[in-house]
Design a protein that fits this description.
Elements lengths: L1 H16 L5 E2 L3 E6 L2 E6 L4 E6 L24 E4 L5 E2 L12 E3 L6 E2 L12 E3 L6 E2 L12 E3 L6 E2 L12 E4 L5 E2 L12 E4 L5 E2 L12 E4 L20 E4 L4 H6 L10 E4 L8 E4 L4 E4 L5 E2 L6 E9 L4 E7 L1 E2 L5 E4 L3 E4 L14 E3 L3 E4 L1 E2 L2 E8 L4 E5 L3 E4 L3 E7 H7 L6 E5 L14 E4 L8 E2 L5 E2 L6 E5 L2 E5 L1
Parallel strand pairs: 4-5, 5-7, 6-8, 8-10, 9-11, 10-12, 12-14, 13-15, 14-16, 15-17, 17-18, 18-19, 24-35, 36-40
Antiparallel strand pairs: 1-2, 2-3, 3-4, 20-27, 21-26, 22-25, 23-24, 23-26, 28-34, 29-33, 30-31, 31-32, 31-34, 32-35, 37-38, 37-39, 39-40
Length: about 475
């Protein structure tokens, strides 16, 4: 009798196991979603979507995403070529998600697709995406950078609502609709560029972006009454508009009463961007064009991070620099033309660019402003004393005042560290600096970029026998 009972239980267990509508192995769990197939690898915590066509969404799956039970564990999502959308709620509340790879076949990101993905720091979208639906990235609290595709034409309501870590946003030129509260309460957003010439901006789209320092707009005729979508931004935010359009913007409410830092015009489009370096070979820069340093003699850096323990700011090298981005430029003394580019690569940057001469104050609201100063032996950012006139095409560093007082103990300067390994004086392997009066030693001489020179320069810096010399 006992034997029959045990045999019945074995048969029942066999039927239960083989009736589950999933393929289960030691590590892989898989199933279907819409026209696609999904698989989850529990070892690598990777979810892969493949197939040709659309993923299923909550409405077609009875409000149950097939991988719901694994959402909190997924760290990587790979979507293979052929999949045409990211479905509604597909990765909502994937709190461990850190990386996602999307193919060029994706054309739409549905509503709430990445809602509350708290660990997602950056995302690069394929150029094929045309629509980012409502709440798609809402409350992704760690999202620092997102590169919006050039073919995008619609950003839905609340799409990036309360993305606290976002520092820069570049709206592509084809976007015609920026939804209600699309970037509402992104209070660390510092730079906003609207490249579209005909974008319609929804109510409160950029309201409560209290850290917003610079808006660059390319619209021919902007929406009237900008207070409805720029409510509660920084009192010292600046606005930069196309050459010859300042009066048009002011007449429609885009004026100094809203943009307390001033309303400025971009340079004439026929002018090539030019950078001039003095004998120390370093300066800050900002331009009303997208710049390409990939083949330049100069090196461009953004300010990427602050180390409160050492009172240091890290400079990270970049090649493509979006319009209006403040940078630090390093090279040899001289004047240089910089090639322009169509790239809209987003960089998470702490510097704020200045495209037209204006005054900045030591303390602007909740921020303390720092400016770059350099010498033969040191480069650092120092706080502005009361008020300072910033020349056109320069940059400064705003840091939250509470951060200075609580973390830096009222630091009088913030020293600079180059992430690529070099320190100031800006040449690896230089141990000391000496003054020079046109030495004639036969030892080879180099500029600070490592290029061999035929003779000692008349002025500036050069390297000889591992030492750095200054000709004044």
């Amino acid at each position: 009798m006992l034997h029959k009972i045990l045999q019945s239980m074995k048969n029942l267990l066999f039927l239960v196991l083989f009736s589950i509508p999933l393929t289960i192995s030691a590590k892989i769990i898989s199933g279907t979603t819409g026209d696609c197939v999904w698989s989850y690898d529990s070892d690598s915590k990777t979810l892969t979507i493949s197939g040709h066509g659309a993923m299923g969404d909550e409405s077609t799956l009875n409000n149950q995403i097939p991988w719901t039970n694994f959402k909190s564990y997924i760290t990587t999502v790979i979507i293979e070529d052929g999949v045409t959308n990211i479905s509604e709620g597909a990765f909502a509340n994937c709190t461990s998600l850190q990386s996602i790879r999307m193919p060029e076949s994706i054309t739409r990101i549905e509503r709430t697709a990445f809602y509350k993905c708290a660990s997602l720091q950056s995302i690069r979208m394929p150029e094929s995406i045309k629509i980012i639906d409502s709440y798609a990235f809402s409350e992704c609290s760690s999202l620092e950078t997102i590169d919006l595709p050039s073919n995008l034409y619609m950003i839905g309501d609340y799409a990036f609502y309360h993305c606290l870590a976002l520092s820069e946003i570049h709206i592509p030129s084809k976007v015609y609709d920026i939804g209600t509260k699309a970037f509402y309460w992104c209070y660390n957003l510092k730079l906003l560029t609207i490249s579209s010439k005909q974008a319609s901006i929804g109510s409160d789209a950029f309201s409560k972006c209290s850290g917003l320092h610079s808006v660059i707009a390319y619209m021919n005729v902007p929406d009237s009454d900008p207070n409805t979508f720029f409510n509660n931004i920084s009192l010292y935010c600046t606005l930069t508009v196309p050459y010859g359009k300042r009066d048009v913007y002011r007449s429609r409410g885009w004026n100094e009463s809203l943009f307390g830092g001033g309303v400025f015009e971009m340079p004439d489009v026929n002018e090539e961007p030019v950078i001039t370096l003095d004998n120390l070979g370093i300066t800050t820069f900002c331009c009303g064009k997208d710049l390409d340093f990939s083949n330049s003699e100069l090196k461009a850096y953004i300010a990427s991070a602050i180390n409160p323990n050492n009172r240091e700011i890290t400079l990270t090298r970049v090649n493509c620099v979006p319009t209006g981005t403040g940078i630090v430029v390093v090279g040899t003394q001289g004047t240089y033309e910089i090639p322009t580019t169509e790239s809209k690569t987003v960089v998470a940057n702490l510097l704020v660019g200045v495209t037209e001469e204006r005054e900045i104050f030591g303390v602007n609201g909740s921020y303390t402003n720092f400016v770059l100063r350099s010498s033969d032996s040191e480069i650092a950012f120092y706080p502005v004393d009361n008020v300072q006139t910033m020349p056109a095409n320069t940059a400064y560093l705003p840091i939250p005042t509470y951060y200075i007082s609580e973390t830096f103990n009222d630091a009088k300067k913030i020293t600079v560290v180059f992430e690529d390994g070099d320190n100031w004086p800006y040449t690896t392997g230089i141990n000391e600096i000496e003054s020079s009066t046109q030495q004639t030693s036969p030892s080879p001489i180099y500029d600070i970029s490592g290029r061999r020179l035929n003779q000692v320069p008349e002025r500036g810096l050069y390297i000889q026998n591992g030492k750095k010399y200054v000709v004044r």
